[in-house]
Amino acid sequence: MRMLLAIAALVALSLVLSSKWFMPWRRHPVGAMLVNGGWLVVLLGMFVGPHVLGLIGQEDQNIIRPLALFGLGWVGLMIGLQGHRRVLTGLPWQVSTLALVDALASLLLTAGLAMIVIHWLAPAPQRPLGYVVATLLGVCVMGWSPELRSLGQRWTQAKGMSVLLRGVSGLSGMFALLCWGLLLMLMQPGDSDTISLTALAWGLATSLLVALTAALLSLWLMRVAIKEAQRMVVLLGLVAFVAGAAAVLGYSPLFVAMIWGLVTINLPQQQLGRFEKAISKAEQPVAMMLMISAGVLLDPWLGLVGCVLLLAMLVGRAAVKLGVDRPLLQKAVKDAQQEALLIGPIRQSPVALAVALGFVISAHADDLGLPLTAARTLSVVVLAGLLFDAAAYLHRWRPWVGAKPAMAEGNGATDHKTGGATIATHSPSDMVKEALS
Amino acid sequence: MRLLTTLLLLFCVAALARYYPYLLDPPLPDAEILALNQSPMMTVMAAGFLMLAAWLVGGIFHSLHLPRISGYLILGLLAGPAVLALIPNEQIPQLTFANDLAIAVIALTAGSEIRLDFLRDKIKKLLLLISLDVAIIMAIAVTALLAASPWIGFLKDQSWLHAAIIAVIIGVVMIANSPAVVIAMIGEYDAKGPLSQTALALTVLKDLVLIVLFAVVLAVAKGVMSTQGGLSGGFILALGFQLIGSILLGGVLGLLMALYVRQVATHLTIFLIGACMFFALLGEVHFHIAGHDTHLETLLMALSAGMLLQNLWPRHSQPLFDSLHDMSLPVYCLFFALAGVKIHLDALATLWYISLAMVVLRAGANWGSKVIGLRMTGIQGGWTRYLWLTMIPQAGVSLVLVIIIEKTFPQSEWAPKVRDMLIGMIVVHELLGPVGLRYALIKSGEAGGEGNSEESASPSSEDSATQEPRTK
Questions:
Q1: A66 and B40 in contact by Cβ < 8 A?
Q2: Which residues of A touch B269 (CB under 8 A)?
């Protein structure tokens, strides 16, 4: 009964908050940050979850976990569908280089810092899997932007520095899923202290097999699914099947779904447009579902290890984004505004939340114990994201100097003062070359 | 050919994921395999597989001029523990929630199809038809079972009274129909007309009567056959709470849904999923009323909410029903495939001869009661000769009744045998019922969708792909 009330309250609140009644409130910077960033839903989920009010207990989580797993499959697919060969090969070298540098720096700095913390604070039996958690934090620091499809819709309309910001953001999402996916393949559940290359090879072969089969199936099924309801069957069925199969096999559903998306978008077909429309139409509900799941599954009582890990993640992100990425961005775009250079890269990518959530529902999560649990790791990622979002919004709002809260109406990195969304007549590649020259 | 390849690929990947723990060297321990089989990950994979594969097999059945629902059921049977075991036995309870969710969707759809003016005009005639159905099926079942009791293992050692009570219990299960199959088939064939309307109203009303009748029969049986329970004031109160509480609460929830549709009107699909989840969860909550354990009926709650929306605010509710319509295909695929997964072929094998005899008796009783009922009520028309065929399908409700019987008499020797016999009968009705219903809808000329809306929807239809550019 308690769970029933909690779900009813959550769904009702989420729906009412996204209605027109709350539009003025959502235009206010704080409201915008909480609603557009999805943090309000996460907070609501946390309050009804097992660690605060306990309306949804530990035993009820078997209803939440399948929903979250399905959402992860959807997110992976969306990220993969950005990777059309024309977009990827058209990316200027500055974008690829910056994304690569960002990924390496995030892994080295943040994961390195977190590994030191774990080595120092976590009990010895927990350390092998603790290092995996440290790598996860490094993966979560990769990239930026509040968007999942920076290279997707309206990519060709990007202008000026937003080309760089969006390009790196899109590539970083793929890098993050690739790193995390490969790491999970190196290990087997219950045997986290040994790393096996055979497991990696077997994992890669199996994941590719599942992804290729799904791509082939989607290609064939798209041709016969004409009505809205049939497209729903194909989409819901394939996403659930791929995410579930990947998780059952012990791999990252995000990674396998991303490979599926990458293969599908690069296969010759005509019907993909309608599917992409259906996928993006469901983006908001799926995001809401993931946010609620994250809120319910996280454990806000971080403990000492969690607090120090949070600190390591904050320091790591600030160091990478401000110390490594910002100078590179400044070098690449000569007349870039300082504010854009600061706010653009600082906000955490939503891929981070998806990766952390995927860890909570993976088989590896059960092997962790106190003081470092998967639920606490998720809290660290959520809190880091919230704090960096708050910093970006508050910096832009600056009520003490009376700045206009323009960001509240936009969607983040795309709409910074780097240039609005004017319809481009050139390819993104030409655009960025123009901007960077 | 491509369709078969698609199916084969799906089966191969599902088999790989299902059986990979056995391929590992060393294989995973049994406890870990059990945990994996019960895990939410397996639930998601199973749901996706069943939904997709059922849709594909439904398409193959459609091209063979068979109902899609039979295809969904056969796919479930093939993938379930009875045959290939791609869906492990341990996963069935985990998928039950999807089942409850589907019942809520189906009941909301049914509610949206029932118009109060039709009910007002026909209620007396419908009630007479139902009463005759109940009386004739029950009389034939009880008489036949008692007459054959010396040759039926689980009846021959019983006293006359106990044998009669067991026969009555079996008779009640034989009365049950499947509103879900009727609603899904009407939707599949886009059937409109007196046969569809009457079949829908009859199955839904009969479900109400069945709940009361089954509860009363079970209470009496408990009172006679054991020292516990029996018919009492508390029992009537609990039963009243179950029925009236479900209808009233469904009405209140319908009002809230109407309020949402009028005032907020965004994200209707999420809202519907949330609402159906709420109905399903509410149906799982147990209450203790006057010493009796009872619960609210998901079917009744969602049905009254749907009826309220359709009959009080039809215009405002239309977008909601449109979303419901879009949602219904994935739900039907999953629901009926799941019903197929649960089919116990072993039960059919044990007492198949009695089960088949019961199938024939039930069909005959159904036909007879309709002939007499239609003559008494004065309902006429060419469609009336097919009405009995719409009452043949059985599925979820009947299976639930069988499970309750077994749970109510856990110590008895006869209950497991009655369960096997009844499940055998339900399996036959599950598989053959939709075929008869399809025949009735087509022969009565009400199957408007046959060849129109649904033909292009067939995944096996070769020209469906080529139709796409033209529709664009």
A1: yes
A2: 285
